[in-house]
Amino acid sequence: MAAPVLPPIGDDIKQWGQSLTAYLQRQLSRFYHKTPDDNPSEDGVVLWDSSKKYAVISSTGAFRQLATKQATPASSVGSAGDVVGMIAWDTNYIYICTGSYNGSTAIWKRVGLSTW
Predict the structure, then answer these.
(1) SS3 86
(2) d(CA 29, CA 84)
(3) CA dihedral 80, 51, 14, 110 (to 10 degrees)
């Protein structure tokens, strides 16, 4: 049996997602098909949604967003490339992007964090 082909992995989740997508497109024909003897630890599929700019996962065909940390927005208006569904956090707040950046509309909302 040939050695498995390993995907590229890095620290930046966005770059990793894009690299993984490109890797899968190049290497798809080299992957082994699952058989009853294969390791069943892989139950889902992780992909990069380039239009929404976040990773998605599915184990049932219904893809859901993975919570990946985006850059903390400097203001509620955000910056170029921000799209609905992005999530960021720091030591004081969790930020959720509720729209796509247009330069003037407040698209980021935040909720304060506190101890309990």
Answers:
(1) coil
(2) 34
(3) 60
As to burial, measured by CB atoms within 10 angstroms (0-12 exposed, 13-18 middle, 19+ buried), residue 46 is: middle
> CB under 8 Å, gap of 24 or more: what pairs does 17-21 form?
17/47, 17/48, 17/54, 17/55, 18/48, 18/50, 20/46, 20/47, 20/48, 21/47, 21/48, 21/50
Structure confidence at residue 72 (pLDDT):
93
Say what the pTM is.
Answer: 0.54
| CA-based nearest residue to 77, from 45, 58, 104 | 104
CA distance 72 to 94: 9
Structure tokens, 56: 């998605």
In this structure, of 38-42, 96-100, 106-110, the range with the lowest mean pLDDT score is 38-42
CB count, 10 Å around CB of 114?
6
Q: Rounded to an integer, what distance in angstroms lies between the CA atom of residue 58 and that of residue 50?
A: 16
Q: Give residue 56's pLDDT.
A: 75
The answer to whether 60 and 30 are in contact (CB under 8 A) is no
